[in-house]
Amino acid sequence: MTPWILGLTGGIGSGKSAVAQHFIEQGVHLVDADQAARWVVEPGRPALAQIAEHFGAEVLQADGQLNRAALRSRVFTDAAERRWLEALLHPLIRQEITDYLARAESPYAVLVSPLLIESGQHELTQRILVVDAPEQLRIERTIQRDQTTAEQVQAILKAQASREERLRHADDILVNDRDLDWLRSEVERLHTFYLSLRGGQP
Question: Pfam families this protein is in (predicted)?
Answer without folding.
Answer: CoaE
